[in-house]
Design goal:
mainly beta, globular, 6% helix, 14-stranded antiparallel β-barrel, disordered N terminus, 331 residues, Porin
């Protein structure tokens, strides 16, 4: 098993990268299927629904907005789910729509399930399109005025492209109890490197790697700390995020589970973000805001993006089997 893990981890860490960049999320721990396909079915319950929304660079240009939805479930040791996102960016309303299916399998490494290994695969369709009519070019400047109605003399060969994409990943979890657990995962996306170019020249979508470590540790009766770190790489782009959230358990009057979260995160050479969340029974809602301090500060004025996350888990009611009934004393 150690040899198998060494080979598997090595495959994910020494891969060669090559052009393009996928979307990213600040609340990466609350968008599990986008983070790693092995997350499918990895939760306590029967059905999980997750929604995410991100709006950024509103202070710089036409805002970049991203919406994601995922649904997953499980049957015995098999996890399965579907996730999709719609991303729109810039003046040309460059849009990316992706729909992905995910499968995973849980290998229990110990009889008590305290150590579990989950490999997973990802497959889906990626569609990209752009509105050329919304873009302006320098030839539309006549020398005296800018005329947006003037011809731009551009020869557009295509304005949309659809491709299949494939990915794979794995998770390893050590779980002592609900308040002491460690999770490590690594994944690769766009393994087939689909051509996403709008022209005859091929523009291969680069392989994206993602690795993370997350832990939950009890401090006292009321507090947990949840640190995590994530590193993503795609072509020349690198994204390192590190931080932690504190979790405070509330005394709910109806004895239902409820908790508050508050955290701070640092994205290397780019931004910091503050996050807040609330758990109530099987519902979670979260919000975060990026504070930009990159070279874009003169335009962004330190304003990055706001992000929302919602998660709801359905647990089926399973009535207890009654093997026999005790007759009352008066019979």
């Amino acid at each position: 098993m150690r040899s198998f893990l060494s080979v598997l981890i090595g495959l994910f860490l020494v891969i060669d990268f090559a052009s393009g960049q996928d979307i990213h999320w600040s609340q990466f721990n609350d968008n599990q299927l986008f983070q790693n396909p092995a997350h499918s079915g990895h939760f306590d319950g029967d059905y999980r629904f997750i929604g995410n929304y991100r709006d950024q660079w509103r202070s710089v240009t036409v805002p970049f907005s991203t919406t994601a939805i995922s649904v997953d479930s499980k049957f015995k040791n098999i996890g399965f789910g579907i996730n999709m996102f719609n991303d729109q960016a810039g003046d040309g309303r460059f849009r990316t729509v992706e729909v992905q299916g995910n499968l995973s399998y849980a290998f229990k490494l110990t009889p008590d399930s305290s150590h579990v290994l989950r490999p997973g695969i990802n497959f889906g369709l990626n569609h990209r399109q752009i509105n050329w009519d919304a873009l302006y070019f320098d030839v539309q400047y006549t020398g005296y005025v800018f005329n947006p109605a003037a011809p731009n003399f551009e020869n557009y060969q295509n304005d949309r492209k659809t491709n299949a994409s494939f990915g794979a990943g794995f998770l390893y979890e050590y779980r002592k109890n609900d308040r002491f657990k460690i999770l490590f995962g690594s994944s690769l996306f766009n393994l087939n490197r689909p051509n996403q170019g709008f022209y005859n020249t091929e523009v291969r979508r680069a392989i994206r790697s993602n690795s993370f470590v997350k832990g939950t540790f009890e401090i006292n009766e009321k507090w947990d700390i949840i640190p995590s770190i994530q590193f993503s790489a795609q072509d020349v782009y690198r994204n390192l995020v590190i931080g932690a959230s504190g979790k405070y358990y509330l005394n709910h009057p109806k004895k239902k589970y409820a908790a508050l979260y508050g955290g701070i995160w640092y994205r290397n050479k780019d931004a910091a973000n503050l996050s807040f969340g609330y758990d109530f029974a099987d519902l979670f809602v979260g919000i975060s805001y990026d504070i930009n301090f990159s070279k874009l500060v003169p335009a962004s004025q330190a304003r990055g993006g706001i992000e929302f996350a919602v998660r709801y888990i359905i647990k089926k009611f399973k009535p207890r089997k009654v093997l026999h009934k005790v007759c009352p004393d008066y019979i």
